[in-house]
User: Which sequence fits this backbone?
């Protein structure tokens, strides 16, 4: 069987198609990464070559192969308490401001996107339980979404390597995890506390049910988007949030360079971005 080759024209076609579908733009520096995964899917589907595979990808009604491709093209490396200063900001500043402004007893809604394998939303839950006194007075809903269905299933299982939990103290590890072969299993209560879902944040249909969000964690996702997709994502988040809601980005990201919709808030622990209150 002849070797499968991805030409420059093939790469360009795929790059443009994947961008339209996901908002993620692969630079030429990612060529080896993309080619390898494309060839893997061409072989897995017995397509024989890029042309046959690309036709299947575009015209498949179920969208199943596109989802398979998304799953292998997304990067999901993370760990518990990553960029911990933002969790400190959540419990020391953001949550108290959210509750002071609340006019009813509806749940506080926190959305973590992308979920990756679940370390971020579970970290949020642990931090609230351990360090926020208001957790016993307020109902909190934690939602987490990703475009990758395989990684969502992994997050729901809640099984983690020793590397994933390396930043956790021994008391927290003992309290919320059970040792298992090859790592740790997070407790059932926390697995039930987070609602996981498959969402493409550049697809209006996918995000229309996410409304009245108080706090959003969207860290190290927008770096994979171009300027137009970043603005689109920022507008989507803005529409999904309550007035006065907060959004946290990754340490290398700046909402000020993406959109003027949000105001910068400088708290002692972190800089975050806020949807302004209407006058």
Assistant:
């Amino acid at each position: 069987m002849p070797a499968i080759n991805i030409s420059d024209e093939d790469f360009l076609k795929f790059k443009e198609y994947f961008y339209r579908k996901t908002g993620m733009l692969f630079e030429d520096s990612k060529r080896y990464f993309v080619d390898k995964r494309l060839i893997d899917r061409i072989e897995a589907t017995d397509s024989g070559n890029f042309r046959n595979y690309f036709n299947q990808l575009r015209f498949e009604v179920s969208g199943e192969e596109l989802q398979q491709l998304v799953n292998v093209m997304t990067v999901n490396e993370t760990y518990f308490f990553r960029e911990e200063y933002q969790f400190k900001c959540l419990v020391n500043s953001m949550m108290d401001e959210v509750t002071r402004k609340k006019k009813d007893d509806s749940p506080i809604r926190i959305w973590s996107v992308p979920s990756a394998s679940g370390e971020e939303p579970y970290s949020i839950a642990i931090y609230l339980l351990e360090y926020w006194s208001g957790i016993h007075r307020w109902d909190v809903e934690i939602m987490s979404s990703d475009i990758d269905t395989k990684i969502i299933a992994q997050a729901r299982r809640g099984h983690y390597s020793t590397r994933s939990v390396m930043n956790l103290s021994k008391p927290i590890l003992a309290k919320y995890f059970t040792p298992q072969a090859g790592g740790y299993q997070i407790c059932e209560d926390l697995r039930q506390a987070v609602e996981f879902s498959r969402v493409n944040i550049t697809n209006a249909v996918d995000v229309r049910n996410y409304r009245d969000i108080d706090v959003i964690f969207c860290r190290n996702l927008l770096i994979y988007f171009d300027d137009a997709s970043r603005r689109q994502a920022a507008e989507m988040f803005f529409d999904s949030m309550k007035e006065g809601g907060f959004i946290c980005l990754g340490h290398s990201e700046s909402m000020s360079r993406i959109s003027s919709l949000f105001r910068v808030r400088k708290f002692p622990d972190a800089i975050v971005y806020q949807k302004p209150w209407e006058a």
Observations:
- Residues 155 and 180 are 16 Å apart (CA to CA).
